Amino acid sequence: MEHRGKESKSFSRYFVFTADELLFLVICIILDVSEYMVAVLLLPVVGDILDTVGIIACLAMFRWIGLISLFELVPGADILPIFIITWLAWYFLRKRRRNSIRRVKS
User: Fold this and answer.
1) How far is it, in rounded angstroms, from Cα 95 to Cα 23?
2) Alpha carbon distance 19, 16 (integer Å)
3) pTM (2 d.p.)
4) 21, 50, 48, 55: which is closest to 34 by C-alpha?
5) How far apart are CA 75 and CA 82, in angstroms?
6) What is the rounded CA–CA span in Å between residue 34 and residue 19?
7) Contacts of 103 (CB under 8 A, 6+ apart)
8) Per-residue model confidence as pLDDT tens digits over 26-52
9) Residue 50 and residue 31 in contact, taking contact as beta carbons nearer than 8 Å
């Protein structure tokens, strides 16, 4: 049984999100999936409006890391989940920063 406890600890260490992290992930998923689900959003003008809203949201949520989302403006890049990639970059940088702070305090 002790082996199972250690296994669940290591698993949960990687997949526990704060409320903010989870909310930001859901927003990014909605922004990316909406482009795939609604064909009208792939049109140049309408799609660019959604991309601009998503870029502004990413800049507000992730600050300078949100600049990654500017790749949404590249023609043909809509097939990539840019907003989710932006969230992943932000999440892993934030996690690395927290771990380095913990090491310094120890």
Assistant:
1) 16
2) 10
3) 0.80
4) 50
5) 13
6) 22
7) none
8) 999 999 998 888 767 667 777 788 889
9) yes
pLDDT tens digits, one per residue of 9-22: 455 566 688 999 99
Quick one: pLDDT at residue 105? 79
Amino acid at 11: F
What is the identity of the amino acid at 18? Answer: T
Neighbours of 103 (CB within 10 A): 8
Kindly report the three-state secondary structure assignment for every residue of the chain: CHHHHHHHHHHHHHCCCCHHHHHHHHHHHHHHHHHHHCHHHHCHHHHHHHHHHHHHHHHHHHHHHHHHHHHHHCCCHHHCCHHHHHHHHHHHHHHHHHHHHHHHHC
**CA distance linking residue 14 with residue 83, whole number of Å:** 21
